Structure to design on (1120 residues):
């Protein structure tokens, strides 16, 4: 059973059901006076946050980071209390499984009597203190609060407007499509420069078409025609190549351009400026990003509303209680 | 009925205008993602690292590594530096790469995942336990650190690991299994976050982990790489799979929980560090079934990494090698044959042969002779095995080390001087997505490098139209098999042709690539007496004068080759002798990382008075002066290199194959024909086994199954008609192999794309299995092999 419960596929199913339950609770329980209370972070707890962070990062957190850590800790506390207040721990199979395991560990019950064990453990207050349960409940609350209402699914117009407002993450770098005639350094040796100059003159004289011209040079293992951004061209031909061809004229022979392999006479077919692709090409990604932003915003609003119900104090290092007021 | 012509014209126009990646990939798409904007049916090289440890690995944590998987992926992508431990395990150092990887996997040790999490998360019951403190505390003294490591890892190092894990897992309220699952889920989430599912396809992550049995210090380690996000709920460690055998317990677990789970899970296992396995990694297969199982699950071996190379071994001082006379096998060797107690530095004559992969491949041929199946059909990759979470940090110059505070300063690096920055895994794939890269790994179209990025193409086959001019790659895919593939007697008694193209590492602005010195074919075979043999051919010989390193500047004294192409035939080819061929591409010599480190502290390994300089500097730098004169392997000047996956020659393989899809004039009238000449046929017996002929691209084109014994003699041939499927016939004349003909009944193949693309024909009967992937060419109403490739 426990193995089954840990299958991630099942988690999502369970979580999905739970989210519906949780949202229902959210709507139903507007009377929340009993949930209000105080949240106080002691200087010791703040210090612990600092040390844990330092352990992971090798340096003490900056003041900005520390503030974020404190805020995160408060959010976690708020979410945890909220989850308990809504009785999520009584419905969540993972929590219940964990509680009966704890019951068995503590010897409160025999191997089989899960329900009794669970109650015993609850009486000991482990739903409040057990780190695994706490982590899980906080996670479930986060998902529940971030869950978007179907009505919040963006319309096509909204997606288009969003994309118009911030297209940068989807932009493509400028790219060139070029055909090159390759003169291998190894094959031409000392005569490389002269041979390149002669061949370039001939290509220009005869107005050779790019397709046929490639055969006048040496074969290039990665092909005669390629498309790439400056970085992509550098990765194929060697450093500086992308830069060298970035100003080459379109529709004529230019060069020679030096690569890690030799010299290249270059015909640029087209220069595609850095561009924002049409929405249709990136529709799914845009919608995904927008939905993500919306659910993050929803979570932030919900958290703010929840924090407002508590009197929150953070004790500065060294002792004397400094108030940070209510509402975080 | 109106003419269909206008429709076709419009369709053609659309294809031209959008220039979309039209070709069908030769594999199935198993995930939801944007198709890659850049798709090349003739495949491009992608560079990766499939062996990276972060703080979730108990040893890495003990060594002072604090980097999370997410940060490790950002590092591989070149986006951000990571912090590294110094000698005192303070996080004062950092590293960053300027050459991002295309793909990578964080592969933490599954052993003790959960314990590490519980011990490093304040608030857990176990946090203050001694065992946990041992993990977290800094050990500036490496002796203390060694003890901590042993205490933490010994469970994986015993001959029979206990089923229980560490004592902390038995504390009330401590649930190591649950914690391990949460680590595993975080590793999955980190891989997902790093995976570029957009059309830009900038980075492919793989979910994976390392399975780490080390009985008495023998490394029997494997990385498990999963194809997509469908992975087992737990990452089963050696402690859990041990009862099923090593590695059979792991094989069973992967077969049950992944391959056979029906969830879309697919995985491959990559053994590594056979050089530390005392021959144990590649043991004799019990029977043909076990050999076939290994071949199926383990298509690759990590042949090069930080803890040295595993290709081959030559002791310079003894003047002999482990099953070889190849003097270039001194490269990056450890002294030990395993990492356990006892005398782990055996003389070369007693060195376990199968610690080295070339010997393993040779023995694989021998097993194929006796069992009918080659258990060691291994392609090659390199990777780092970094315990600093620095995947792809493979530059010799300025290497920051790879083992936390074990090699965090010049003195410690030189004391650990036989390590190296590690290598890279290179795949030839159509695009940079999980499906494409995984499939490339699976078909072994891969090569390993010792850290640099040369470009290497390698094909074998009839290759009748292939020249170094013209359409080399296209023609080679049409008439030959790429690296990792197999051949039959494609030109009868004459040697198959091999098409070889190596281009130097193009380099970066700060570090220009090194020229190629030479290209070699390494051949291994079983001779007429049943003895294994090997031979190395310089197929592109060194330039003269060959380059040496300027002892002052560490640069090459002479140019090598930027670009080398050749078509080669094996002068020692014998039709009846089973063989493999792989390429080894050597770069011009350059200074080893240790030479640069030693010089930075005033000790010059190339100076005649090196020992005196070391004595002045610090006794810790004595090993700076190890070299050709006084050490069997160490060399201050090295030749970086690449090794391609082998191409196997099988006397019983496909000698000739013509296959064709003929599209009918009406729907449902499409026919597939296959005509194949097989080699010798000792293992091929359709009277005793079902005969299955399958033609497939991304999906199935046709499968014809002839049940065992249903082929009936009709005149000079054996024939069968399979109702609703097609007709099959088999002719055998004298000693030469059978000739197989398959014609399907008319069927609907409208889903098959009518453009040039890769199609694989496979023929199976009992243990006999051959595969024949080729670029099929479209021509009017036909799509098939064997026609002259049209010039583009």
């Amino acid at each position: 059973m426990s193995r089954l419960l840990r299958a991630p596929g099942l988690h999502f199913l369970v979580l999905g059901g739970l989210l519906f339950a949780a949202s229902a609770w959210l709507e139903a329980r507007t009377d929340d006076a009993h949930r209000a209370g105080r949240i106080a972070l002691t200087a010791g707890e703040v210090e612990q946050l600092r040390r844990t962070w330092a352990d992971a990062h090798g340096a003490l957190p900056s003041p900005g980071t520390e503030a974020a850590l404190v805020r995160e800790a408060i959010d976690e506390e708020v979410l945890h209390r909220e989850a308990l207040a809504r009785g999520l721990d009584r419905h969540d199979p993972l929590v219940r499984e964990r509680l009966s395991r704890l019951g068995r560990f503590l010897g409160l019950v025999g191997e089989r009597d899960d329900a009794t064990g669970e109650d015993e453990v609850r009486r000991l207050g482990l739903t409040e203190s057990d780190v695994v349960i706490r982590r899980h409940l906080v996670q479930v609350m986060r998902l529940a609060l971030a869950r978007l209402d179907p009505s919040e699914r963006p319309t096509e117009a909204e997606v288009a407007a969003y994309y118009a407002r911030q297209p940068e993450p989807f932009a493509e770098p400028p790219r060139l499509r070029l055909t090159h005639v390759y003169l291998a350094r190894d094959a031409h040796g000392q005569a490389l420069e002269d041979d390149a100059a002669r061949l370039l003159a001939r290509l220009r004289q005869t107005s050779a078409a790019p397709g046929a011209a490639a055969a006048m040079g040496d074969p290039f293992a990665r092909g005669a025609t390629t498309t790439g951004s400056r970085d992509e061209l550098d990765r194929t031909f060697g450093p500086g190549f992308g830069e060298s061809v970035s100003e080459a004229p379109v529709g004529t022979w230019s060069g020679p351009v030096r690569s890690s392999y030799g010299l290249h006479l270059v015909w640029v077919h087209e220069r595609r400026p850095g561009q924002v692709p049409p929405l249709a090409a990136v529709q799914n990604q845009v919608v995904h990003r927008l939905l993500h932003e919306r659910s993050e915003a929803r979570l932030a609003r919900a958290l703010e509303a929840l924090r407002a119900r508590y009197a929150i104090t953070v004790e500065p290092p060294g002792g004397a209680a400094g108030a940070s007021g209510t509402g975080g | 009925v109106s003419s269909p012509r206008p429709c076709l014209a419009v369709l053609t126009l659309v294809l031209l205008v959008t220039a979309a990646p039209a070709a069908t990939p030769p594999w199935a798409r198993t995930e939801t993602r944007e198709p890659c904007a850049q798709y090349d049916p003739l495949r491009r090289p992608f560079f990766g690292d499939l062996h990276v440890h972060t703080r979730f690995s108990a040893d890495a944590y003990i060594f002072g590594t604090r980097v999370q998987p997410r940060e490790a992926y950002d590092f591989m992508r070149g986006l951000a530096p990571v912090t590294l431990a110094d000698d005192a395990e303070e996080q004062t150092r950092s590293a960053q790469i300027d050459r991002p990887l295309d793909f990578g996997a964080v592969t933490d040790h599954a052993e003790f995942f959960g314990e590490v999490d519980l011990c490093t998360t304040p608030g857990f019951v176990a946090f203050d336990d001694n065992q946990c403190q041992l993990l977290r505390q800094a050990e500036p003294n490496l002796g203390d650190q060694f003890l901590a490591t042993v205490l933490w890892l010994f469970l994986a190092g015993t001959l029979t690991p206990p089923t229980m894990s560490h004592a902390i897992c038995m504390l009330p309220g401590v649930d190591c299994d649950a914690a391990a699952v949460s680590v595993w889920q975080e590793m999955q989430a980190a891989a997902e976050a790093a995976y570029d599912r957009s059309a830009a396809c900038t980075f492919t992550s793989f979910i994976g982990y390392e399975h780490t049995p080390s009985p008495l210090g023998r490394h029997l380690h494997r990385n498990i790489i999963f194809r997509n996000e469908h992975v087992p709920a737990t990452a089963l460690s050696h402690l859990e799979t041990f009862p099923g055998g090593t590695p059979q317990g792991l094989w069973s677990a992967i077969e049950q929980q992944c391959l056979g789970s029906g969830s879309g899970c697919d995985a491959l296992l990559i053994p590594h560090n056979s050089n530390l396995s005392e021959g144990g990694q590649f043991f004799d297969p019990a029977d043909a079934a076990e050999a076939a199982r290994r071949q199926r699950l383990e298509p690759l071996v990590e042949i090069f990494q930080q803890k040295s190379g595993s290709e081959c071994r030559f002791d310079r001082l003894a003047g002999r090698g482990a099953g070889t006379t190849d003097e270039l096998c001194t490269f990056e060797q450890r002294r030990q044959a395993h990492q356990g107690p006892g005398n782990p530095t055996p003389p070369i004559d007693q060195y376990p042969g199968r610690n080295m992969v070339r010997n393993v491949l040779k023995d694989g041929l021998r097993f194929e002779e006796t069992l009918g199946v080659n258990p060691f059909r291994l392609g090659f990759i390199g990777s780092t095995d970094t315990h600093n979470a620095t995947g792809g940090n493979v530059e010799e110059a300025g290497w920051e080390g790879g083992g936390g505070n074990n090699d965090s300063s010049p003195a410690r690096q030189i004391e650990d001087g036989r390590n190296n920055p590690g290598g890279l895994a290179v795949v030839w794939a159509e695009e940079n997505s999980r499906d494409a890269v995984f499939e490339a790994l699976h078909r072994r179209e891969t090569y390993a490098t010792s850290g640099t990025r040369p470009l290497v193409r390698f094909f074998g086959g009839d290759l009748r139209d292939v020249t170094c001019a013209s359409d080399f790659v296209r023609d080679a895919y049409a008439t030959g098999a790429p690296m990792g593939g197999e051949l039959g007697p494609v030109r009868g008694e004459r040697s198959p042709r091999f098409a070889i193209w190596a281009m130097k590492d193009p380099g970066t602005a700060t570090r220009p690539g090194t020229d190629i010195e030479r290209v070699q074919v390494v051949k291994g075979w079983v001779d007429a007496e049943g003895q294994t043999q090997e031979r190395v051919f310089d197929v592109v010989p060194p330039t003269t004068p060959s380059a040496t390193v300027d002892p002052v500047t560490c640069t090459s004294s002479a140019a090598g080759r930027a670009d080398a192409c050749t078509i080669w035939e094996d002068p020692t080819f014998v039709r009846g002798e089973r063989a493999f061929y792989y390429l080894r591409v050597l770069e011009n010599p350059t200074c080893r990382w240790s030479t640069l480190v030693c010089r930075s502290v005033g000790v010059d390994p190339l100076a005649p008075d090196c020992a005196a300089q070391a004595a002045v500097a610090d006794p810790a730098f004595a090993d700076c002066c190890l070299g050709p004169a006084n050490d069997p392997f160490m060399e201050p000047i090295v030749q970086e290199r690449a090794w391609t996956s082998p191409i196997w020659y099988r006397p019983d393989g496909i000698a000739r194959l013509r296959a064709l899809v003929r599209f009918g004039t009406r729907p449902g009238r499409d026919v597939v024909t296959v005509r194949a000449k097989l080699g010798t046929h000792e293992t091929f017996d359709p009277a005793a086994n079902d005969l299955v002929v399958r033609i497939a691209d991304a999906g199935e084109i046709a499968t014809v199954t002839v049940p065992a014994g249903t082929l009936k003699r009709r005149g000079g041939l054996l024939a069968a008609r399979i109702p609703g499927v097609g007709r099959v016939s088999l002719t055998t004349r004298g000693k030469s192999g059978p000739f197989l003909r398959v014609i399907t009944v008319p069927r609907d193949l409208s889903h098959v794309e009518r453009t040039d693309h890769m199609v694989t024909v496979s023929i199976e009967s009992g243990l006999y299995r051959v595969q024949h992937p080729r670029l099929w060419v479209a021509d009017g109403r036909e799509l098939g092999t064997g026609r002259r490739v049209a010039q583009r």
Observations:
- Residues 176-194 of chain B form the longest helix (19 residues).
